[in-house]
Amino acid sequence: MIRIAALRRSILAWILATGAAGGCGSSLGGDARGLDAGGEGGSRAGSTALTASTTTRATPTSATPTSATTPSGAGSSGGGSSVASSGSGTSDAASTEAGAPAGLWVTGYYPSWNDDANSATYPVRAIDWAGLSEVASAFYIPDGNGGWASGSFDAATANALIAAAHGTSKRAIASIGGADSGAGFEGSMANLSTFMSNLAALLTLGYDGIDIDWEGGNQTLAEDQALETTLLQGLRAAHPSILLTMTAGIVNPNLAQASDYAFYGAIAPALDRINVMTYGMAGAYEGWESWHSSPLHWNNVSATPSGIDNSVSYYLAAGVPAAKLGVGIGFYGLCYTAPVTGPVQPLDGSTVVVSDDVMSYANILANYYSSSAYHYDTDASVPYLTLSGNDAEPCTYVTYEDATSIAAKAAWVKAQGLGGVIIWSIDEGYVAGGASLAEQNPLLDVTKSSFLQ
User: 3-state DSSP: the chain helix, strand, coil percent, rounded to 5?
Assistant: First the structure.
Protein backbone atom coordinates (compact mmCIF):
# COMPACT_ATOMS: atom_id res chain seq x y z
CA MET A 1 0.00 0.00 0.00
CA ILE A 2 1.02 3.62 -0.41
CA ARG A 3 2.20 4.73 2.98
CA ILE A 4 0.08 7.33 4.71
CA ALA A 5 3.31 8.81 6.04
CA ALA A 6 4.39 10.17 2.65
CA LEU A 7 0.98 11.70 1.96
CA ARG A 8 0.89 13.20 5.43
CA ARG A 9 4.28 14.84 4.99
CA SER A 10 3.39 16.35 1.63
CA ILE A 11 0.09 17.76 2.88
CA LEU A 12 1.69 19.18 6.03
CA ALA A 13 4.50 20.83 4.09
CA TRP A 14 1.98 22.51 1.78
CA ILE A 15 -0.21 23.69 4.66
CA LEU A 16 2.61 25.09 6.75
CA ALA A 17 4.25 26.72 3.76
CA THR A 18 1.08 28.34 2.42
CA GLY A 19 -1.02 28.88 5.51
CA ALA A 20 -3.84 26.86 3.98
CA ALA A 21 -6.61 25.78 6.29
CA GLY A 22 -7.25 22.26 7.40
CA GLY A 23 -4.93 19.40 7.95
CA CYS A 24 -3.48 17.84 11.01
CA GLY A 25 -2.64 20.40 13.51
CA SER A 26 -2.49 23.34 11.21
CA SER A 27 -4.72 26.35 10.94
CA LEU A 28 -4.84 29.86 9.72
CA GLY A 29 -7.54 32.39 10.18
CA GLY A 30 -9.11 30.35 12.93
CA ASP A 31 -9.50 27.14 10.91
CA ALA A 32 -7.95 24.67 13.31
CA ARG A 33 -9.14 21.53 11.68
CA GLY A 34 -6.51 18.94 12.18
CA LEU A 35 -3.71 17.80 9.83
CA ASP A 36 -0.53 16.47 11.10
CA ALA A 37 1.58 18.60 13.19
CA GLY A 38 4.05 15.92 13.12
CA GLY A 39 4.40 14.14 10.04
CA GLU A 40 3.04 10.72 10.23
CA GLY A 41 4.80 11.10 10.50
CA GLY A 42 4.33 12.89 12.81
CA SER A 43 1.59 11.00 13.06
CA ARG A 44 -1.60 11.81 13.78
CA ALA A 45 -2.99 15.09 13.89
CA GLY A 46 -5.83 16.30 15.69
CA SER A 47 -9.28 16.20 14.66
CA THR A 48 -10.30 19.79 14.72
CA ALA A 49 -6.90 20.68 15.64
CA LEU A 50 -4.45 23.43 15.74
CA THR A 51 -2.69 26.53 14.85
CA ALA A 52 0.74 25.42 13.75
CA SER A 53 0.95 27.34 10.55
CA THR A 54 3.64 29.78 9.57
CA THR A 55 3.89 33.51 9.76
CA THR A 56 5.94 36.11 7.98
CA ARG A 57 9.44 36.21 9.33
CA ALA A 58 9.77 37.99 12.61
CA THR A 59 12.98 39.20 14.13
CA PRO A 60 13.74 36.66 16.82
CA THR A 61 15.14 37.45 20.17
CA SER A 62 18.43 35.86 21.12
CA ALA A 63 17.96 32.35 22.44
CA THR A 64 20.85 30.00 21.91
CA PRO A 65 20.18 26.72 23.72
CA THR A 66 22.66 25.30 26.14
CA SER A 67 24.38 22.13 24.95
CA ALA A 68 25.72 19.18 26.86
CA THR A 69 27.36 15.98 25.79
CA THR A 70 25.39 13.50 27.84
CA PRO A 71 25.14 10.36 25.71
CA SER A 72 21.78 9.00 24.72
CA GLY A 73 20.73 5.72 26.23
CA ALA A 74 17.91 3.32 26.71
CA GLY A 75 17.08 4.08 30.32
CA SER A 76 16.54 1.71 33.19
CA SER A 77 14.31 -1.29 33.00
CA GLY A 78 11.84 -2.67 35.44
CA GLY A 79 8.50 -4.35 35.77
CA GLY A 80 5.69 -2.75 33.86
CA SER A 81 2.26 -2.00 35.18
CA SER A 82 -0.94 -2.69 33.33
CA VAL A 83 -3.81 -0.29 33.17
CA ALA A 84 -6.85 -2.07 31.94
CA SER A 85 -8.72 -5.24 31.65
CA SER A 86 -8.94 -7.58 28.72
CA GLY A 87 -11.94 -7.56 26.47
CA SER A 88 -14.00 -4.63 25.25
CA GLY A 89 -16.07 -2.34 27.35
CA THR A 90 -13.46 -0.96 29.75
CA SER A 91 -12.90 2.71 30.42
CA ASP A 92 -10.73 5.00 32.47
CA ALA A 93 -13.72 6.49 34.18
CA ALA A 94 -17.21 5.20 34.74
CA SER A 95 -18.45 8.71 34.12
CA THR A 96 -16.39 10.77 31.71
CA GLU A 97 -18.11 13.91 32.96
CA ALA A 98 -16.75 13.45 36.44
CA GLY A 99 -13.74 11.26 35.94
CA ALA A 100 -10.08 11.90 35.78
CA PRO A 101 -8.50 8.74 34.38
CA ALA A 102 -6.84 6.56 37.00
CA GLY A 103 -3.08 6.46 36.43
CA LEU A 104 -0.91 7.67 33.57
CA TRP A 105 -1.45 6.21 30.12
CA VAL A 106 1.06 5.35 27.43
CA THR A 107 -0.71 4.70 24.12
CA GLY A 108 1.46 3.46 21.27
CA TYR A 109 0.29 3.69 17.67
CA TYR A 110 0.88 0.53 15.64
CA PRO A 111 0.68 1.17 11.87
CA SER A 112 -0.57 -1.71 9.76
CA TRP A 113 2.10 -1.27 7.10
CA ASN A 114 4.73 -2.71 9.46
CA ASP A 115 2.79 -5.79 10.49
CA ASP A 116 3.30 -9.45 9.64
CA ALA A 117 1.29 -9.11 6.43
CA ASN A 118 3.34 -6.13 5.19
CA SER A 119 7.06 -6.95 5.40
CA ALA A 120 6.99 -7.73 9.12
CA THR A 121 9.40 -4.96 10.06
CA TYR A 122 7.70 -4.87 13.46
CA PRO A 123 5.66 -8.01 14.08
CA VAL A 124 3.14 -8.06 16.89
CA ARG A 125 5.30 -10.54 18.80
CA ALA A 126 8.06 -7.89 19.04
CA ILE A 127 5.98 -5.40 21.07
CA ASP A 128 7.18 -4.82 24.61
CA TRP A 129 3.83 -4.44 26.35
CA ALA A 130 5.48 -3.50 29.65
CA GLY A 131 6.01 0.02 28.24
CA LEU A 132 2.38 0.52 27.18
CA SER A 133 -1.06 0.78 28.70
CA GLU A 134 -2.68 0.24 25.30
CA VAL A 135 -1.96 0.08 21.60
CA ALA A 136 -3.86 1.96 18.88
CA SER A 137 -4.38 0.34 15.47
CA ALA A 138 -3.60 2.91 12.77
CA PHE A 139 -5.82 3.35 10.84
CA TYR A 140 -9.41 2.57 9.95
CA ILE A 141 -10.03 5.09 7.17
CA PRO A 142 -13.61 6.35 6.62
CA ASP A 143 -14.67 5.81 2.99
CA GLY A 144 -17.37 8.49 2.93
CA ASN A 145 -20.18 5.93 2.92
CA GLY A 146 -19.96 4.75 6.50
CA GLY A 147 -17.46 1.97 5.88
CA TRP A 148 -13.69 1.59 5.58
CA ALA A 149 -11.53 2.60 2.63
CA SER A 150 -8.87 0.48 1.01
CA GLY A 151 -5.68 0.51 3.05
CA SER A 152 -7.45 0.32 6.39
CA PHE A 153 -6.10 -1.87 9.18
CA ASP A 154 -6.40 -5.53 8.22
CA ALA A 155 -8.49 -8.00 10.19
CA ALA A 156 -5.78 -10.60 10.71
CA THR A 157 -3.41 -8.12 12.33
CA ALA A 158 -6.26 -6.64 14.36
CA ASN A 159 -7.08 -10.05 15.81
CA ALA A 160 -3.42 -10.72 16.62
CA LEU A 161 -2.94 -7.29 18.18
CA ILE A 162 -6.09 -7.50 20.31
CA ALA A 163 -5.20 -11.00 21.50
CA ALA A 164 -1.64 -9.95 22.39
CA ALA A 165 -2.86 -6.88 24.27
CA HIS A 166 -5.46 -8.77 26.26
CA GLY A 167 -2.99 -11.55 26.94
CA THR A 168 -0.85 -9.05 28.83
CA SER A 169 -3.81 -7.29 30.52
CA LYS A 170 -3.45 -4.26 28.26
CA ARG A 171 -5.95 -2.64 25.91
CA ALA A 172 -6.28 -2.22 22.16
CA ILE A 173 -8.16 0.66 20.58
CA ALA A 174 -9.06 1.36 16.95
CA SER A 175 -7.82 4.68 15.57
CA ILE A 176 -10.25 6.09 13.01
CA GLY A 177 -9.05 8.52 10.37
CA GLY A 178 -5.52 9.44 9.37
CA ALA A 179 -4.10 11.80 6.80
CA ASP A 180 -6.65 13.77 4.77
CA SER A 181 -9.49 11.76 6.27
CA GLY A 182 -11.84 14.69 6.86
CA ALA A 183 -13.83 14.31 3.64
CA GLY A 184 -14.32 10.62 4.42
CA PHE A 185 -15.61 11.51 7.87
CA GLU A 186 -17.96 14.13 6.43
CA GLY A 187 -19.47 11.70 3.95
CA SER A 188 -19.72 8.96 6.56
CA MET A 189 -21.58 11.30 8.91
CA ALA A 190 -24.23 11.63 6.18
CA ASN A 191 -24.58 7.84 6.53
CA LEU A 192 -24.47 7.92 10.31
CA SER A 193 -26.41 4.72 11.01
CA THR A 194 -24.07 2.68 8.80
CA PHE A 195 -21.01 4.44 10.21
CA MET A 196 -22.03 3.80 13.82
CA SER A 197 -22.74 0.16 13.01
CA ASN A 198 -19.26 -0.28 11.56
CA LEU A 199 -17.70 1.42 14.58
CA ALA A 200 -19.70 -0.87 16.85
CA ALA A 201 -18.41 -3.86 14.85
CA LEU A 202 -14.85 -2.91 15.82
CA LEU A 203 -15.84 -3.11 19.48
CA THR A 204 -17.48 -6.47 18.86
CA LEU A 205 -14.21 -7.61 17.28
CA GLY A 206 -12.61 -7.01 20.67
CA TYR A 207 -11.32 -3.45 20.66
CA ASP A 208 -11.60 -1.70 24.02
CA GLY A 209 -12.18 1.74 22.57
CA ILE A 210 -12.14 4.21 19.70
CA ASP A 211 -9.67 6.98 18.88
CA ILE A 212 -10.97 9.70 16.52
CA ASP A 213 -8.34 11.28 14.25
CA TRP A 214 -10.35 13.63 12.00
CA GLU A 215 -7.94 15.42 9.66
CA GLY A 216 -8.90 18.13 7.22
CA GLY A 217 -12.18 18.26 5.33
CA ASN A 218 -14.18 20.17 2.73
CA GLN A 219 -16.62 21.87 5.06
CA THR A 220 -16.09 24.80 7.38
CA LEU A 221 -14.45 24.36 10.75
CA ALA A 222 -17.74 25.04 12.53
CA GLU A 223 -19.54 22.45 10.41
CA ASP A 224 -16.86 19.84 11.04
CA GLN A 225 -16.86 20.52 14.77
CA ALA A 226 -20.63 20.11 14.86
CA LEU A 227 -20.33 16.77 13.04
CA GLU A 228 -17.54 15.63 15.33
CA THR A 229 -19.57 16.58 18.37
CA THR A 230 -22.43 14.46 17.05
CA LEU A 231 -20.08 11.54 16.44
CA LEU A 232 -18.33 11.66 19.80
CA GLN A 233 -21.46 12.20 21.85
CA GLY A 234 -23.20 9.46 19.89
CA LEU A 235 -20.36 7.03 20.55
CA ARG A 236 -20.40 7.87 24.26
CA ALA A 237 -24.16 7.42 24.51
CA ALA A 238 -24.13 4.13 22.60
CA HIS A 239 -21.04 2.73 24.33
CA PRO A 240 -20.74 4.42 27.72
CA SER A 241 -17.93 2.23 29.07
CA ILE A 242 -15.47 2.22 26.14
CA LEU A 243 -12.21 4.14 26.10
CA LEU A 244 -13.00 7.13 23.87
CA THR A 245 -10.19 9.44 22.78
CA MET A 246 -9.35 12.05 20.17
CA THR A 247 -6.22 13.75 18.88
CA ALA A 248 -5.44 17.46 18.67
CA GLY A 249 -2.73 19.62 17.17
CA ILE A 250 0.05 21.80 18.49
CA VAL A 251 -0.30 25.56 18.93
CA ASN A 252 1.51 28.29 17.03
CA PRO A 253 1.64 31.14 19.56
CA ASN A 254 2.12 33.68 16.75
CA LEU A 255 -1.40 32.96 15.51
CA ALA A 256 -3.34 31.30 18.29
CA GLN A 257 -6.53 32.75 19.71
CA ALA A 258 -8.06 31.33 22.86
CA SER A 259 -11.37 30.96 21.05
CA ASP A 260 -9.78 28.47 18.64
CA TYR A 261 -9.73 25.87 21.42
CA ALA A 262 -13.15 26.32 23.02
CA PHE A 263 -14.37 23.25 21.13
CA TYR A 264 -12.03 21.02 23.12
CA GLY A 265 -13.28 22.21 26.46
CA ALA A 266 -16.86 21.73 25.29
CA ILE A 267 -16.33 18.18 24.00
CA ALA A 268 -14.11 17.03 26.89
CA PRO A 269 -17.03 15.68 29.03
CA ALA A 270 -17.77 13.07 26.32
CA LEU A 271 -14.16 11.90 26.18
CA ASP A 272 -11.70 10.03 28.34
CA ARG A 273 -8.67 11.65 26.70
CA ILE A 274 -7.59 14.42 24.36
CA ASN A 275 -4.05 13.84 23.12
CA VAL A 276 -1.97 16.65 21.61
CA MET A 277 0.42 15.39 18.93
CA THR A 278 3.55 17.13 20.14
CA TYR A 279 6.09 15.73 17.68
CA GLY A 280 7.26 16.89 14.29
CA MET A 281 6.89 20.40 15.70
CA ALA A 282 9.49 21.96 13.40
CA GLY A 283 10.33 22.21 9.71
CA ALA A 284 11.92 24.31 7.00
CA TYR A 285 8.93 26.61 6.69
CA GLU A 286 8.88 30.20 5.53
CA GLY A 287 9.45 32.49 8.48
CA TRP A 288 10.93 29.74 10.68
CA GLU A 289 14.40 29.02 11.90
CA SER A 290 15.64 25.53 12.70
CA TRP A 291 14.00 24.06 15.78
CA HIS A 292 13.38 20.83 17.65
CA SER A 293 10.98 18.06 16.66
CA SER A 294 9.48 17.81 20.15
CA PRO A 295 10.65 20.63 22.44
CA LEU A 296 9.27 20.36 25.94
CA HIS A 297 9.71 24.09 26.51
CA TRP A 298 9.17 26.90 24.03
CA ASN A 299 12.01 29.43 23.85
CA ASN A 300 9.67 32.42 23.27
CA VAL A 301 11.27 33.07 19.86
CA SER A 302 8.70 33.92 17.19
CA ALA A 303 10.73 32.18 14.45
CA THR A 304 10.54 28.88 16.35
CA PRO A 305 6.87 28.96 17.38
CA SER A 306 6.29 25.62 19.08
CA GLY A 307 6.70 24.04 22.48
CA ILE A 308 4.81 21.41 24.43
CA ASP A 309 4.38 23.64 27.47
CA ASN A 310 2.86 26.43 25.39
CA SER A 311 0.50 24.10 23.50
CA VAL A 312 -0.74 22.48 26.68
CA SER A 313 -1.49 25.87 28.23
CA TYR A 314 -4.06 26.64 25.50
CA TYR A 315 -5.97 23.38 25.99
CA LEU A 316 -6.02 23.82 29.76
CA ALA A 317 -7.25 27.39 29.37
CA ALA A 318 -10.03 26.09 27.09
CA GLY A 319 -11.31 23.95 29.94
CA VAL A 320 -9.85 20.54 29.12
CA PRO A 321 -9.22 18.85 32.50
CA ALA A 322 -5.50 18.25 33.02
CA ALA A 323 -6.09 14.59 33.85
CA LYS A 324 -7.78 14.08 30.46
CA LEU A 325 -5.01 15.79 28.49
CA GLY A 326 -2.04 13.92 26.99
CA VAL A 327 1.02 14.92 24.99
CA GLY A 328 3.04 13.07 22.36
CA ILE A 329 6.42 11.44 21.88
CA GLY A 330 7.81 10.73 18.42
CA PHE A 331 9.99 7.68 17.93
CA TYR A 332 11.51 9.44 14.90
CA GLY A 333 13.47 12.57 14.12
CA LEU A 334 13.87 15.35 11.55
CA CYS A 335 16.92 15.64 9.28
CA TYR A 336 17.96 19.17 8.26
CA THR A 337 20.52 19.79 5.51
CA ALA A 338 23.36 22.32 5.48
CA PRO A 339 24.01 24.98 6.51
CA VAL A 340 21.93 24.31 9.64
CA THR A 341 23.87 22.49 12.36
CA GLY A 342 21.66 23.04 15.40
CA PRO A 343 18.50 24.72 16.70
CA VAL A 344 17.58 28.40 16.32
CA GLN A 345 19.63 29.00 13.18
CA PRO A 346 18.58 30.77 9.96
CA LEU A 347 17.60 28.23 7.32
CA ASP A 348 19.48 29.87 4.43
CA GLY A 349 18.30 27.16 2.07
CA SER A 350 18.29 24.25 4.52
CA THR A 351 15.46 21.76 4.12
CA VAL A 352 14.10 18.83 6.08
CA VAL A 353 14.85 16.00 3.67
CA VAL A 354 13.54 13.06 5.72
CA SER A 355 11.59 12.63 8.92
CA ASP A 356 9.03 10.06 10.00
CA ASP A 357 9.58 6.54 8.71
CA VAL A 358 13.06 7.04 7.25
CA MET A 359 14.45 8.90 10.26
CA SER A 360 13.32 6.37 12.83
CA TYR A 361 15.02 6.22 16.21
CA ALA A 362 16.44 2.84 15.25
CA ASN A 363 17.97 4.30 12.08
CA ILE A 364 19.33 7.32 13.95
CA LEU A 365 20.93 5.09 16.55
CA ALA A 366 22.45 2.72 13.98
CA ASN A 367 23.63 5.18 11.33
CA TYR A 368 23.86 8.72 12.71
CA TYR A 369 24.46 8.77 16.44
CA SER A 370 27.92 9.21 17.96
CA SER A 371 28.98 10.69 21.25
CA SER A 372 30.94 13.39 19.45
CA ALA A 373 27.86 14.46 17.46
CA TYR A 374 25.50 14.46 20.45
CA HIS A 375 24.23 17.58 22.22
CA TYR A 376 21.43 18.11 24.72
CA ASP A 377 19.48 21.36 24.79
CA THR A 378 18.79 21.78 28.48
CA ASP A 379 16.40 24.69 27.88
CA ALA A 380 14.11 22.76 25.52
CA SER A 381 14.91 19.39 27.18
CA VAL A 382 15.68 17.52 23.97
CA PRO A 383 18.75 16.05 22.24
CA TYR A 384 20.16 16.72 18.80
CA LEU A 385 23.05 15.67 16.57
CA THR A 386 25.44 17.91 14.64
CA LEU A 387 26.76 16.02 11.61
CA SER A 388 28.94 16.46 8.53
CA GLY A 389 26.24 15.63 5.98
CA ASN A 390 28.18 12.64 4.65
CA ASP A 391 25.79 9.94 5.83
CA ALA A 392 23.08 8.12 3.87
CA GLU A 393 20.93 11.25 4.09
CA PRO A 394 22.76 14.58 3.92
CA CYS A 395 21.89 15.49 7.51
CA THR A 396 23.82 18.20 9.27
CA TYR A 397 21.28 18.60 12.08
CA VAL A 398 19.10 15.80 13.45
CA THR A 399 16.49 16.53 16.11
CA TYR A 400 14.91 13.53 17.83
CA GLU A 401 13.94 11.92 21.17
CA ASP A 402 16.06 9.78 23.47
CA ALA A 403 15.91 8.32 26.97
CA THR A 404 16.82 11.62 28.63
CA SER A 405 14.16 13.69 26.87
CA ILE A 406 11.45 11.07 27.41
CA ALA A 407 12.24 10.99 31.13
CA ALA A 408 12.07 14.80 31.19
CA LYS A 409 8.66 14.73 29.52
CA ALA A 410 7.42 12.16 32.02
CA ALA A 411 8.54 14.29 34.96
CA TRP A 412 6.87 17.36 33.46
CA VAL A 413 3.63 15.51 32.66
CA LYS A 414 3.45 14.31 36.25
CA ALA A 415 4.26 17.75 37.65
CA GLN A 416 1.48 19.34 35.56
CA GLY A 417 -1.06 16.70 36.56
CA LEU A 418 -1.57 15.61 32.95
CA GLY A 419 -2.98 12.23 32.04
CA GLY A 420 -0.37 10.57 29.88
CA VAL A 421 1.33 10.31 26.52
CA ILE A 422 0.85 8.94 23.01
CA ILE A 423 3.65 7.57 20.82
CA TRP A 424 3.97 7.85 17.06
CA SER A 425 4.90 5.20 16.26
CA ILE A 426 6.18 2.26 18.29
CA ASP A 427 7.63 0.40 15.31
CA GLU A 428 10.14 3.21 14.74
CA GLY A 429 11.80 2.48 18.05
CA TYR A 430 12.35 -1.21 17.28
CA VAL A 431 15.99 -2.31 17.33
CA ALA A 432 16.15 -5.80 15.84
CA GLY A 433 18.59 -8.27 17.28
CA GLY A 434 18.29 -7.33 20.92
CA ALA A 435 18.54 -10.16 23.41
CA SER A 436 15.22 -9.27 25.09
CA LEU A 437 12.04 -7.34 24.31
CA ALA A 438 13.34 -4.46 26.44
CA GLU A 439 16.57 -4.30 24.44
CA GLN A 440 14.65 -4.49 21.17
CA ASN A 441 12.37 -1.65 22.32
CA PRO A 442 14.70 0.69 24.22
CA LEU A 443 12.41 3.74 24.11
CA LEU A 444 9.40 1.71 25.27
CA ASP A 445 11.61 0.55 28.13
CA VAL A 446 12.04 4.21 29.05
CA THR A 447 8.30 4.90 28.93
CA LYS A 448 7.86 1.98 31.30
CA SER A 449 10.30 3.28 33.87
CA SER A 450 9.36 6.95 33.44
CA PHE A 451 5.57 6.89 33.04
CA LEU A 452 4.28 3.57 34.34
CA GLN A 453 6.38 2.95 37.45
Answer: 30, 15, 50
Q: Which residues of the chain have pLDDT under 70?
A: 1-102, 115-120
Instruction: Specify the pTM.
Output: 0.82
Q: Where are the alpha helices (DSSP H) in 190-343?
A: 192-205, 221-238, 262-267, 308-317
DSSP annotation of 51: B
With a CB cutoff of 8 Å and minimum separation 6, the contacts of 346 are 289
337 vs 349: CA distance, rounded Å: 8
**β-strand pairing of 105-111 with 134-140:** parallel
| Torsion sign across C-alpha atoms 118, 119, 122, 123 | positive
Strand 397-399 and strand 382-386: the pairing is antiparallel
Q: Which of 53, 51, 241, 224 is nearest to 142 (CA)?
A: 224
Q: Name 107's bridge partners.
A: 134, 422
Cβ neighbours for 401, distance < 8 A, ≥ 6 positions apart: 279, 293, 294, 329, 330, 331, 333, 361, 382, 383, 443
Compute the distance between CA of residue 13 and CA of residue 29 in angstroms, rounded to an integer: 18
Pair 3, 114: CB distance under 8 Å:
no
Complete domains list, the chain, with CATH: 4-451 (3.20.20.80)
In sign, the C-alpha dihedral spanning 250, 251, 255, 261 is positive
> What pLDDT, in 10s, does the model give residues 278-287?
999 999 999 9
Say which DSSP state 126 is in: G
Quote the pLDDT of residue 228.
97
Q: At what angle do helices 182-189 and 192-205 cross, to 10 degrees?
A: 110
Positive or negative, the Cα torsion across 94, 97, 102, 103?
Answer: positive
Q: What is the pLDDT of residues 95-136, one digit of tens each?
A: 333 333 347 999 999 998 876 666 668 999 999 999 999 999
For residue 134, what are the β-bridge partners? 107, 171
How many CA atoms, within 13 angstroms, populate the side-chain half-sphere of residue 209?
Answer: 31
Amino acid letter, 15: I
Is residue 29 within 8 A of residue 226, CB to CB? The reply is no
